[in-house]
Structures are given as C-alpha cells and as structure tokens.
Design brief:
By secondary structure, the chain is an all-alpha fold. Among the domains are: 42 residues, no CATH class; 49 residues, no CATH class. It has 9 helices and no strands. The longest helix has 19 residues. The relative contact order is 0.03.
C-alpha cells in the first residue's frame, strides 16, 4: 500500500470492515491508527449524545420550505416521457393479449372439492344449541334483554371489577 488510508478505507477500518492489508497498515502506521481511534471516539460520543426532538414549529417550517423548493424547481418537458412510455407498453400488451385465441378449459383434470361452509354443522355448534334451548324455553336471550350501559348499572363491585379486568385483557393491558 502506498501512503496513508483514504477516507473510505479509514471508515471501513473504524467499523472493522477493512481488508487485511488496510488493517495491517492501521496497526503499523501511528498516524492512521490515531485517525481511526479519533473517529471511533467521535462515533461513540455521537451514539451517547441525547438529541431532543425538534418542536412542531420546526416541522411545519420544514414542510413549507420543501414545498417552496419543489414549486421553484423548473419544470422539464421530459417528465411526461416515462408516463407516455408506460402507457404505450400497456397498450401494446393489451393489443397483444387481445389477439390471442383462448384455449378451451379442460376441466376433466380438475379435482372435485366438497362444498365448504364457514359455519360448523348444527350438531357441532354449541352456541346454536344454547340459542335453540333458550328459544324452546321461551326466555329471551341474555343479550336481547340488555341494551347499552344500563346492563352495567346493576353490577356489584365484584362484578364490575371482573368486567374491568376482562376489558383490560381484551384491550391488551391498556388502562381504561
């Protein structure tokens, strides 16, 4: 190697990604070793520094400045070229696909699947059996008798606590 490490190789040495030749040069050259150690110290200091979040006014000003710069940028006539090229490619593809003659679908090889339902069979559905029992007894289902927050009015302290705990679990531990 001729001379000291260039900046790119020096950064690789700081991050311990340098090749063997560059690493050997850093071990042997006091000037390069000192630069690597200074850069590592600066990297550690920057990682430990607490940087506060800029205020909301900064972000609003930043947004306006970016908008002004975009508006001030000169319009180029070539901007429509990519859109035109994409449109032309889509048109050619559509014309090419429309000229093909469709082949008849051979369904003789397709497997026959049984009908599927998202609901379980009536004899396996415990909820349906409960509803059928309630209907047969003439009682209103518990949900039909209660509308809104009045259902919670008559709860005891213990029942209210149980409802709050169940809601916390359901909401992932967030405070009510």
């Amino acid at each position: 190697m001729f001379g000291h490490l260039k900046d790119e190789a020096l950064l690789d040495a700081v991050e311990e990604l340098a090749g063997e030749e560059a690493a050997r040069h850093v071990r042997e050259c006091a000037a390069c070793r000192e630069r690597v150690e200074e850069a590592r110290a600066a990297l550690r200091a920057s990682a430990e520094a607490a940087v506060p979040e800029p205020p909301a006014l900064f972000w609003e000003s930043f947004r306006r400045q970016v908008g002004r710069r975009i508006a001030a940028e000169p319009r180029r006539a070539v901007r429509w070229l990519p859109a035109f090229a994409a449109l032309a490619a889509a048109l050619l593809l559509a014309v090419g696909l429309s000229n093909r003659t469709p082949r008849p679908l051979d369904v003789s090889l397709a497997p026959v699947l049984p009908a599927w339902s998202a609901l379980p069979a009536l004899e396996d559905d415990v909820g349906a059996q409960v509803i059928q029992a309630l209907i047969a007894s003439g009682d209103d289902p518990p949900v039909a008798a209660c509308r809104g927050l009045e259902c919670l009015e008559g709860l005891t302290e213990e029942e209210s606590s149980a409802v709050a705990s169940a809601l916390r679990v359901e909401m992932g531990g967030r405070i009510l």
